[in-house]
Structure formats: structure tokens, C-alpha cells
Amino acid sequence: MAKKPWGGRFGQPTDKLVEEFTESISFDRRLYRQDIEGSIAHCRVLAEAGIISPDEEGRIIEGLNSILADIEKGRFKFPAELEDIHMAVEQELTTRIGKAGERLHSGRSRNDQVALDLRLWLRNEAGEVTGLIGELKTALVEAADKEMGTVMPGYTHMQKAQPVLLSHYLLAFREMLDRDEDRFRDCLKRINVMPLGSAALAGTGLPLDRKVAARLLDFPAITANSMDAVSDRDFAAEFIFASSLLMMHMSRLCEDLVIWSSGEFGFVEIADSFTTGSSIMPQKKNPDVAELIRGKTGRVYGNLVSLLTVLKGLPMTYNRDLQEDKEPLFDTVDTVKACLAVLSRMLGNVRFAGARMLAEASRGFTTATDLAEYLVRKGVPFRQSHEIIGRLVGYCLAEKKELQSLSLEELKNFNPAFEKDALSVIDPVKSVDSRNVIGGTSRKQVSSAIRKIKGRSGK
Fold first, then answer.
1. Is 278 a catalytic residue?
2. To bridge 229 with a disulfide, which of 5, 73, 158, 198 should be the other Cys (CB 3.0-4.6 Å)?
């Protein structure tokens, strides 16, 4: 059994069951690179303060780099009895270089060490997530550009509402992703604050220059309160919250794709390479990728609730409960990255049924509002025009007619302000183009939006 670095005051070895229960090395080993990076910076600060000699500094850094190389080559063992990645690296360092390795932990606690590792790791992951968001945004814009002019029924309450451009629909999700990207970039400001030097909770009595460590680790800011620094996991909860909103946005898109791929809608066909079959029904083609993204959204929500629940009752400062921050955070990062990558790829393998969409946009009285606005332009107050068109729709239902099949005489029976040009506003394509306000669904507005997006991205 490995000797514990903290075992001096203990008269009995740790029970095997306790070791198995308390270890975190099975999952925090993924922080090995950040742990070694932070240890090298701490070593340099110790040398600058005269706590260790230049020779010891060189041997420690050389030893840490050799450990890093062995881990990346798969030659390093992570014994559970060493509890976590910090102790595993430190003990191995001492084995390799002797007493000099025992000096590395001077002025440092695992409390500020793990806070540092987590921030170093998460700032890199936040950058990767924003990059993947960018790829999904690009996929949406490419689809919007390709489908420019495709008219579909827009829905409210899952009922047909008004005709819209499919491109306008796709760009709506890009707007959501813009906000997601902003949230991750803003979250990064609070991730990117250095806690090293806070030690266990009160700071260190050794003359260590935290500014040097911050410069070496490329942190633009340093934590201002050592007690807060070692117990703060706000940045992790905030990251998972931003991830939850991102997952919700992806889930909404996937929900539509699942519904639209059904025979009842028939709006999309997802390529065979992004669908699966049934073990019993030979005819089935299931949108499992979209369904799994929808399902994994709940998983990320659960991670947020898990972490917030861990944090809600903790007394100041560090408590071992905080070990439970990593698995929900790691799982969130892995889940979000996987969903972003597969959804971006899948969007390029979706075929939209434009003719079917237009046909459905022509049914269900989707241009009723256009007729109401026609009367408004003729001087009829909107509330009156709303009632008139409501009665007109009731007439169509009774006569089993669509608006497009009405004659001018039938329209005039409901209001004499209707003239021949009223028949043209019933056309769903003309309806779309009439929505020519900033942010509207007209081809002019949507084409302009795509041009602006491509101009900003340099494409």
C-alpha cells in the first residue's frame, strides 16, 4: 500500500473500502496535462522565491516532463490508493528524482491545485465548444443558402400559422447559437482567473509571487480572496448552465427533424448514414441521431442540478463534496461536443422536401392574416378585419374550401373593400415576400441576412 503524503498523524492505514470510496483518480486522471503544467509553473515560482535551488528546479521540471511523456505514451499507472491525479504525479516525481520532488508542494494545497487544474482544463474545453458551435452555425447558413426560396408552413401551438421561408427557420437557430457562443465566451472570463497561491484556504506564508504564476499560465486575472478561490465552482456551474441552453436549442431543432421526417409530415429525409433501422420491422428508418441529442439534453440538465445540489449547502471553504464536481462537468463537456459534431454533420445529410412544404403552406388558411392586413390597408380597423376574416374562414370550413379557391365575389360577400388584387395576397409565396420588415421572412430580408453573415465570416 502506497504511503500517504498526509499520513504523518495517522496511526492506522486507510481501509481498503475507504480508499475505493474516496478515490477520484479513475476520472480526474484526465487532468494530468493541466496538473503538470500547473506544477511546472509553481516550481518556477518556488525557485524565484528561493524556496528551491536552480538545480532542484531543473530536476523537478525534467521529471514532470518525463511523467507527461510516459502518460501520453500509455506507460504510466494510476494506482487507486494514491487517491487523485495530484498525488499520483507527485509521488511518481519523488520516485524518479528523489528528495527534490518532496519540495514541490511547498506553499501549495490540493485545494488550490485542483481549482487550478479544473480552470486550465475548462478554459481549453470552452474554446473547443465555441469552435464546434461555429461549425454548426456554418452548417445552418449553408443549408439556409441552399434552400433559399423554399416556402414552408410556420407553426404556433403546433398549428399551421403563416407561410415562412425554410431559410428563415434555419437562421432562427443560428440566432440561438449566437447567444450560446456569447454565453460561453462570457463564461470564459470567469473561468480564466488563477487560484494558485491560495493554498488550503488562507494563502501561503511563503514569499511566492502569484503574478509570476499567472503570467506563466497565461491567466489575465488572479483570484482576490483565498477562501473563495478554493471553494468556488460557480464557473463550472455556469459552464453547465450555458451547455444546458445550448443542448436545449439543439434539442428543439432535433425535435422538428424527428417530426418532419415522419410520414405524416414528410418534410425531410435524413440520409441512411445518419439513421438506423428496427430489429423487427424491416421497413423502419429511424431518426435516432436526432432523438439521442434530444435525450442527452436531459442528461446535461441533470448534471447542472447535480452540481448545484452539491454546492448549495457547503460551509466555507473546501469540502470533499467538491470532488463530485468533476464527473458532471466532464460528462457535460463530452456530451455537448459529441452532439455538436454529429448534428453539424447530419445537417449536411438532410434533404428538404420543398414541394411538399409549399403544398402544406398553401393549406390550413395560412394566409388569413394577409387578408386581414389587406383590409387594414383599405382603411378597415384591424379588430374589424380580424372578425371579418374569421367569419370568412368559418365559411371555408363549412364549404370545405381553401382560401385559394375563393372567388372575388365570395370575398366581397364578407366586405366590399375586397378588390381583384386581394386574390394575390392569398398566395403563400407572395405572403412570404410581403413580410419585408427587418428580421422578417421575406426573401429580400433573409438574403440580406445571409449576405451579412457570410460577410462577417469571410465566406
1. yes
2. 198
Give the pLDDT confidence score for residue 1 in this predicted structure.
45
C-alpha pair distances (Å), 55 with each of 90, 97, 101, 104, 303: 18, 11, 12, 13, 45
CA 80 centroid distance within chain? 32
Return the H-helix or E-strand segment holding 152.
Answer: strand 151-156
Note whether 270 and 348 are within 8 A (CB). Answer: no
Report mean pLDDT in 10-residue bins for the chain, 459 residues: 64 81 94 98 98 98 98 94 94 97 97 98 98 98 98 98 98 98 98 98 98 98 98 98 98 98 98 96 96 98 98 97 98 98 98 98 97 97 97 97 95 96 95 97 98 82
Of the residues 26, 53, 262, 278, only one is catalytic, namely 278
In 3D, which of 342, 386, 350 has the Cα closest to residue 258?
350
**Residue 336 and residue 247 in contact, taking contact as beta carbons nearer than 8 Å:** yes
- Whether the model pTM is above 0.90: yes
Pair 66, 56: CB distance under 8 Å: no
Exactly one of 157, 273, 279, 407 is catalytic; name it: 157
Q: Which among 87, 96, 104, 3 has a CA at the least distance from the CA of 44?
A: 104
Q: What is the pLDDT of residue 374?
A: 97
Cα gap 193→187, rounded to integer Å: 11
The Cα 304–Cα 362 span in angstroms is: 43
Helix/strand number for the chain, H first, E second? 18, 6
Does a cis peptide bond (omega within 30 degrees of 0) precede residue 317? Answer: yes
